[in-house]
Amino acid sequence: MLIVHGDSRSWSWRAITQGNKRSMPIFYNVAPSKVKYQNEHYGNAIVSHLNKKWFNDETINNWKAALKEVGELEGWDLHSMLNRYLIISHTDCKGEFAKEVVNDVLI
Description:
The structure is a single chain. By secondary structure, the chain is mostly helical. It has a single domain, classed as Rossmann fold, CATH 3.40.50.10140. The chain is built from six helices and three strands; from the N terminus they run E-H-E-H-H-H-E-H-H. It has helices at 13-17, 32-36, 41-52, 57-72, 78-85, 90-106, and strands at 2-5, 25-28, 76-77. It has a three-stranded parallel β-sheet with strand order 1-2-3. The model has no long low-confidence stretch (mean pLDDT 76). Residues 19-85 form the TIR domain. This is TIR domain-containing protein.
């Protein structure tokens, strides 16, 4: 299970390039397209790493390719669930989202 969160500060850049290729991502507070195309937080984080020069270009290119790959994987997407169920409370939706993921994994 790979949890993709909208806050790039909580993202483990190295974990994605070493992850299990059979993982199904959980997109929590981020749309899969934002991950795939490295928009917003992800794009800003990559630019920040490029500017700091703490990692070589090959490593950063590996991250970008891994993010693109993860964004293309089938998984669970909280935003899609919000639109699908039209639940009044965002908090209720998060609980239903967690139940759906658990049920899918256990079945």
